Structure formats: C-alpha cells, structure tokens
C-alpha cells in the first residue's frame, strides 16, 4: 500500500475533516430549524390564544411585536411582500405571513393596497396595447415577471379579485368581467356585448379569428362578423394581421403578445 | 455576429408587423418598434440604418431579421417603415444622415457604416441609442479621468485608437462624434482644431 508522505499525507485527512464538518453543520442546522419550527408553532398558538387581546390591547400588541423583533422576526416587514402559499387551491386564500391571518388585519389592508397600486399601474401601462382589457392570468404574468424587481411571490387569482374590489370603490370603471371562460379586468368603462365576448373566448383558444371563421362556426352573416370585428379593433381589443397565409385579415387578441 | 439579440415577445406577435388602425394602439405599436430598433442597434453597435431597414456596419452586413421575422413569416412593409421612422425622428431617436456635414471633418473611414446607394430615394438615418449629449458627457468624463484636458486630441485618438477599445465610444460614428464635439464646443468645453483646408482634425477639451 502506498503511503503518502509529507504534506500529501494530509490530503485524505482534509477530505475526512470536511466530510465530518459538513455533517456537523447539517446536524446543527436541522436541529435549529426544528427548534425554529417549534418556536413558531408556539408563537402561533400563543397568538391564537390571545388573538383578541393582541388586537384590542395596544400595550399588549406592542410587547408582542417587541418579542417578535427580539428574536429576529419582523411581523410587519415580513408580511408585506412575502407570501407563503402551500396549497394550489385558489379558493383558500393563504395570508402572507404565518400569523398575519390571526392578528395583523391592518397589514392585510396594506398588502392589498400595495397590490392595487401595482394592478392599476399595469392596467395603465398596457391599456394602449390591449384597449384596457386584460385577463387576470395575463396580469399575474406581469406581476410575477422574474425581471420585475418588485414582483410579489405566489399571487393567486383571488388576491387580484380582492384588490379589484377595493379599486372598484374608488374607480367604478375597474371591474371584473367573466366571459364564461376566464376572468378579465377592464380598467376603462367597457361593456362587452355577447358577440364580442364570444370572439374573445375563441381567440383564447385558437389565437386569432377571421370573418370566415366566425361565419363558419357561429353561423353569423358576413356583415355581422365584420361589424363586430371592426368595433373591437376600433376599441383596441384586437390587433389586425394582414399577412396571414389565407389572404384574410386575421384578428388577434393582444394577450398573445 | 457572435451573441444573438434577445427579441421581445411582441416580435413574435404577427400583427406587430401590420399597421394597426386604432390610433392609440398604433402609437404603442410604434413605441414598441422604436424600442426594439434602439435596443437592437445598441446590442450590435449599429450607427446607421436606411429607410428600407437595411443595416450595414463595420462588423459586416446584417441579415434582415430585425424587420423580417422568418419564424412567423412576417415583415414590415414600406408604409410601416415610414411610420416608424417618422415616429423616431419626432422623438429625436434618429436623425437624417447628411454627408455634407462630414466634408469638413477629417477622420479615417468617413464613409464607414453608410449604405452607398445610387438610388436617391434611399435615406440613411443615424441611430441615437445614446443622445449626442450623453456621448459628449462620456467623452468629457474620459478626458478628465485620463488627464487629457487641455491637450490636443486627434479624432482618430478619440474613437479609433486601440487604447480606448473598452470605452463605449470606441468606433463612434463620425457624424455623432462631430455632433457631440459641437455640443461640448458650444458649452465652451471644447475647441475644434482645423487644418489649412478648414477641416476639423482635432479637438482640445478643457
């Protein structure tokens, strides 16, 4: 067996050392995270138990916050832009912070106010592209855009709906339109008639429509088809493409951008 | 071309290549085109583009990918070119290239990047992915940082010398260089040096 001499003999030992040290670190961090979990559970139980007291007694809540802060948990800051969603069920809306759903109702307000501002911003920015009509799915894409430094994690459709209901109070032009297939947000005063609705639904599926497609599928007359499409182009809901292979103008939903 | 440009998603949206009839939509379409052109030119360091969308640069000629999306088989027509370039002219993002301005301007390869065309209907545009003021500031900063104030610099030194290869204004088009120097000169920060024939050969930045 070759025994390494000199410095080289330490080579193997170093590997051993690093293995052991990483094991130790792993153990310690497991232990710590267990403890942290336990502590959080206790804290939540505590918050549950004294929920009303915390809400109603400012002195008590101040002390409670102090406790949170002293162990390095900031109940206020952590709840604004961090949101832990553990379930895919969009109906059960999970609050942003472990205990915010127990106590910090004011924080909720803050979160949704902030979200509302962002929604309004996006609606404004994109209204020239889409005529003021944007699907919630699309809106979520903008909000979750990884290149957006202010993106909010794990937003769900329900969050948007809550925010829109808030905005609605200030600006009744903001509303949610359900076209049977999905929820759209209109930020301008828009009324969609059923023909226009149907076109938007079909555009979601096959990207674009033509007069021919409408005539064949809906049995609309040429005049009716053309008229609805023209009205939607006029309002900026659809973009036209005259370079389609079949020599017909194609009408596209800008949400495909 | 080494690295390839990352096109925005709207570039793959077929109607982007057709002029939109709704005025508001058209405006946002033009703004998107204008952004795309500026970003593309900056990425490839393109200085000149002609009114048919042809690009020539010192690093060779470009294919027509910017205005012709082969993947979706859509390209811009002349009507849209006119709209887009008018929009960019109005927003001072491009300027009509005028060779006369360079006649009094002595620099190597004056004709670089310019599409020579016998067809007089072709117009060349200088693309300002940075404003002349910004270029002027960059040059000024470099001069100050490198202790070249008050010394006479040739135009070659300012844009072609290998020692400035890392500076953003390396290879700067003479048209833009002249514009920038004139801005510095009108701020009394630069003095243009002319030779016996009245040609600008150098500059002293103070």
From TrEMBL, chain A:
One of its GO terms (biological process) is protein transport to vacuole involved in ubiquitin-dependent protein catabolic process via the multivesicular body sorting pathway. Keywords: Cytoplasm, DNA-binding, Endosome, Membrane, Protein transport, Transport. One of its GO terms (molecular function) is DNA binding. It is a peripheral membrane protein. GO terms for cellular component: ESCRT II complex. It is found in: Cytoplasm; Endosome membrane. Pfam families: EAP30. Belongs to the SNF8 family. This is Winged helix DNA-binding domain-containing protein. The lineage of its organism: Eukaryota, Fungi, Dikarya, Ascomycota, Saccharomycotina.
UniProtKB/TrEMBL annotation, chain B:
Pfam families: ESCRT-II. This is ESCRT-II complex subunit VPS25. Transmembrane segments: none annotated. GO terms for cellular component: ESCRT II complex. Keywords: Protein transport, Transport. The lineage of its organism: Eukaryota, Fungi, Dikarya, Ascomycota, Saccharomycotina. InterPro entries: ESCRT-II_cplx_Vps25-sub, ESCRT-II_cplx_Vps25-sub_N, WH-like_DNA-bd_sf, WH_DNA-bd_sf. It comes from Ascoidea rubescens DSM 1968. SUPFAM superfamilies: Winged helix' DNA-binding domain.
